[in-house]
Amino acid sequence: MKEKVKITEVGARDGLQNEKAFIPTNVKIEFIKKLIDASLSHIELTSFVKASSIPQLADASEVSAHFVRQSISQEFSCLTPNLQGYKSAIEHGYKEVAVFTAASNSFTKKNINKTIEESIQAFEDIFLEASKNNVKVRGYVSTIIACPYEGWIDPDKVLGVIDRLLDKGVYEVSLGETIGKAIPSQVEKLLNLILKKHPAKLFAGHFHDTYGMGIANTSKSLEMGLRSFDSSSGGLGGCPYAKGASGNLATEDLLYLLDTHGYETGVDLNKIVEASQYIESFLGRKLMSKSYQALLASKI
Amino acid sequence: MKEKVKITEVGARDGLQNEKAFIPTNVKIEFIKKLIDASLSHIELTSFVKASSIPQLADASEVSAHFVRQSISQEFSCLTPNLQGYKSAIEHGYKEVAVFTAASNSFTKKNINKTIEESIQAFEDIFLEASKNNVKVRGYVSTIIACPYEGWIDPDKVLGVIDRLLDKGVYEVSLGETIGKAIPSQVEKLLNLILKKHPAKLFAGHFHDTYGMGIANTSKSLEMGLRSFDSSSGGLGGCPYAKGASGNLATEDLLYLLDTHGYETGVDLNKIVEASQYIESFLGRKLMSKSYQALLASKI
């Protein structure tokens, strides 16, 4: 029997939030329908943030209303930066939310004007409510290897943040390599430290592809036992610290690796290509996933 | 002291030969000057083939005349498919040539209308001349993991071809992952077999990035002891079997990995970016190296 790997599609949230031009809500909905059609079972739909901070996701309510309560086989999640966001999520019927912190104080300070510890404290109410509501909480830790302000991050610092999130009750920690600067030997060193203390099943790899290292870091993480990864259709998105650079690891590249290795994901690679083609036509630029481009090319 | 890694820049040959529109000779020369300025010490300049088979490289003589005899610190090489090509190379003063075969009979048949064994026999004269002339011969083995006609290739078959080339006297075997379909676990399996029999210093990794796996396969090869890699500036080139797909592993992505890891290459990454920018302006499309794009973006 094939070993399973979980894919969390973050294109509609992490991908789109880095796209400058507003994507109309009906286009987002059509895009997500295509992701569902590709049999992705874990999709992060949107983020309940102030519309002023991420205008791209100002339609979180409309997008959520379209999918969450209608879901039969998909597990949808959304980012909830605070209790207000959490309450909106619950009103829309989400059974899973994600909270966000980082391994660098400079990064949390610049992004949410809180220290790491203050950001975790601020989630206290979400964790309390979620345990009452039987809602799963996923925790993102950003800047696990490098921070745009502090440079390379001490792995012990990352482990400290992970410990705090697991203590609070997150069911999975998504290890965010936010600026795509990591290389496999650094990922190996960090995972060696983490996996001495915690089982691999508590973690997901969330790699960005800014310097083209996303799939190499993913491959190393797979080797070390991780079986859960975040990716975005076509490699949607970008990097706020290097405008014009690549975004998240592409779902197509991830699937190419997993399918070729013989892992089971349940996801249909050709239908992901169709979803990417659809959203690409609204972007005014080419999506940068190489497997996407190769598969498109071989179709012609 | 830092460990050294050798980079063979193949953009001017393997990269450009996959570009449809003819790049004027003076542009090629300026491009190569910029590669030299980036302190690349091993550059494959061109190929002495019939102009009708690869029109892009019909200016092999002009390009060679411009650089080879003037070389002080660079080691230039060129592809020589037969004795006639070898003689042209020697006339231009080359001290290194490269011969080409594959691990798949269907591939050599389609490309040069010879079986693998016939292709190696055909090099006999080149090997004889080269040993008299004190010229180094490098051997390419294409389709080491996958063939566009035969599918996955048996590692034992690859080892057999390597043995033949080493017997003939090549100083380095460049392991060509021609269609970019390999993933790290396959590279590991193949290298495990090869390195049981031969020392790692006899091999170079030559990975294509068609499905975005180039850097992951390179990283795995580094881990297993390889210290020599072929790459092309900006990821120049494409794939004849998937038009519109990516080309060779990009020199920028390779350097990003090596520099970050702390290997010594002697090559100036920022100057490679300048060379890529220059050649890109003659291509009518964007070069697909992600490190190239990120470094360009962070310059702005």
If you had to describe this structure to a student in words, what would you say it looks like?
The structure is a homodimer of 300-residue chains. The first copy, chain A, is α/β, with parallel strands linked by helices and 300 residues long. Chain A has a single domain, classed as Alpha-Beta Barrel (TIM Barrel). Chain A has 13 helices and ten strands. In chain A, the strands form two sheets. An eight-stranded parallel β-barrel of chain A has the order 1-2-3-4-5-8-9-10, surrounded by eight helices. In chain A, strands 6-7 form a two-stranded antiparallel ribbon. The radius of gyration of chain A is 18 Å and the shape is globular. The two termini of chain A are 34 Å apart. In chain A, 53% of the residues are buried. The model of chain A has no long low-confidence stretch (mean pLDDT 95). The interface between A and B is large, with 41 and 41 residues.
Runs of chain A with pLDDT <50, length 5+? none
| Overall form of chain A | globular
Largest interface: A-B, 41 and 41 residues
Let me know the CATH homologous superfamily of chain A: Aldolase class I
What composes the largest sheet of chain A? 8 strands, parallel, barrel
* Head-to-tail CA distance between termini of chain A: 34 Å
Quote the beta fraction of chain A.
Answer: 15-25%
Radius of gyration of chain A, CA atoms, in whole angstroms: 18 Å
Tally of helical segments of chain A: 13
Helix content of chain A: 40-55%
**What is the quaternary state of this protein?**
homodimer
